[in-house]
Inverse folding.
């Protein structure tokens, strides 16, 4: 597998000594973006290993050994190999407690999990149908379906978060759900051309996220494997 | 909404009403996960049926419980939690007895990974609403082959993920979060989608372990107060 390797996190290292954490990621993957933000917030250095989706690297036997579902992100921490963004982020949160990703009170914690799951179980998986739709119905119809799914999910999130949001989704600090929201809103705007006027809360939150380097720096346009034509 | 008390197998002798209220639909596999977990943790609860086929999830009553209109939802005194993963993680923190998450961090993460393969990569892709959509756009044959292929892709991945770890249950000899998600998913795959489980020896074996548990049997859709035969 030809892998583009680059140093992620803060500061480049010149020594050949391998970093302990390794993240398999794809520039455009919103699931990978969630974890990139989390690693950055916690100040964790890691090796960025790009998986080239258009060339099918996620289906190579080598990669399938890491994650049999063929998805990114995958985190390697010594002997531990983990896939799935929620599993990875909760693992990181337990091991590296700086900048905790979950609020202390149980209500807000539950809202974080629920909202993260609205994105990771209701919105994002439908995008997996996109390829299928594109082949059968054509690109425009496929985008229209994706837009519908995103809008439904966003309407649900507006409702869910309205009583809890502060500067960020569940208060005045960044938590787990913000790591899910930012990449999803970014994708909605840039890839699926969703009009955000209907979603005032999510629009406001996205502006707040884009003021934070940990979010900005980890968006698709700024990754080691971002193609030149998409680089920001 | 239909209301009945349902006690898990190891019933308390107290006459006080259960503190927990579970909003559930008998056929919802997401609700099934929580029923199974409540039984495993020995937590009594009141079962409140929400009839999804009659649209009760959109009633003003249920809107107050979960404005996103889905089951399961769990009420614990003043607090209401919706979404099966959110509920299960809440229960783990509040009622740590008979833990469904292992202590080892790597194993915990693996349980979450397996649970999320089910809840993000399998179940959402064969929900009734999604299948109806597929059928409308592409026809009924496409509907069956879509469901089958999504389930099998997920099951093949789970086999690989779990085959070196599984013992009596998915990640060893103790029952954990992954099992709570897998049990209903495998049951639905067999019953509703006729998946050939001989391709999945690890999943078949652990499913046999689930079937031996009264906690699992009590959580079966057909044993729920709102089941229609």
């Amino acid at each position: 597998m030809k892998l583009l390797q680059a140093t992620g996190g803060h500061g480049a290292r010149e020594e050949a000594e391998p970093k302990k954490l390794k993240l398999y990621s794809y520039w455009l993957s919103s699931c990978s973006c969630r974890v990139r933000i989390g690693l950055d917030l916690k100040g964790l250095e890691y090796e960025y290993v790009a998986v080239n989706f258009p060339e099918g690297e996620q289906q190579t036997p080598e990669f399938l050994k890491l994650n049999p579902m063929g998805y990114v992100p995958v985190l390697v921490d010594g002997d531990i190999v983990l896939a799935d963004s929620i599993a990875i982020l909760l693992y990181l949160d337990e091991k590296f407690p700086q900048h905790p990703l979950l609020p202390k009170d149980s209500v807000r914690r539950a809202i974080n999990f629920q909202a993260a799951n609205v994105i990771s179980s209701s919105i994002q998986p439908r995008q997996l149908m996109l390829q299928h739709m594109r082949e059968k119905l054509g690109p425009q119809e496929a985008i229209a379906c994706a837009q519908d799914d995103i809008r439904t999910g966003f309407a649900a999130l507006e409702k869910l978060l309205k009583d809890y949001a502060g500067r960020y989704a569940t208060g005045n600090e960044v938590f787990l759900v913000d790591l899910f929201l930012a990449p999803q809103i970014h994708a909605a705007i840039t890839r699926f051309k969703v009009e955000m006027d209907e979603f005032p809360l999510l629009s406001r939150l996205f502006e707040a996220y884009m003021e934070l380097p940990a979010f900005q720096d980890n968006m698709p346009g700024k990754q080691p494997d971002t193609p030149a034509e998409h680089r920001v | 909404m239909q209301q009945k008390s349902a006690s898990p197998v190891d019933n308390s002798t107290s006459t006080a009403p259960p503190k927990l209220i579970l909003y559930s639909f008998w056929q919802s596999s997401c609700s099934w996960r929580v029923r199974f977990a409540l039984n495993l943790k020995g937590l009594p609860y009141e079962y409140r049926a929400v009839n999804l086929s009659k649209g009760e999830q959109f009633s003003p009553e249920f809107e107050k419980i979960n404005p996103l209109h889905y089951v399961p939802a769990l009420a614990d005194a003043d607090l209401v939690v919706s979404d099966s993963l959110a509920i299960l993680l809440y229960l783990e923190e509040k009622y740590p007895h008979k833990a469904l998450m292992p202590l080892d961090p790597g194993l915990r993460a693996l349980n979450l990974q397996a649970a999320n393969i089910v809840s993000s990569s399998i179940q959402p892709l064969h929900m009734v609403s999604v299948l109806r959509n597929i059928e409308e756009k592409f026809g009924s044959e496409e509907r069956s082959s879509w469901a089958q292929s999504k389930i099998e892709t997920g099951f093949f991945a789970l086999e690989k993920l779990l085959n070196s770890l599984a013992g009596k249950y998915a990640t060893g000899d103790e029952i954990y979060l992954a099992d709570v998600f897998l049990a209903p998913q495998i049951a639905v795959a067999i019953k509703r989608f006729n998946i050939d489980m001989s391709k999945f020896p690890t999943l078949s074996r652990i499913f046999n372990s689930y079937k031996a548990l009264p906690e699992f049997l009590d959580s079966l859709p057909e044993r729920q107060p709102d089941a229609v035969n």
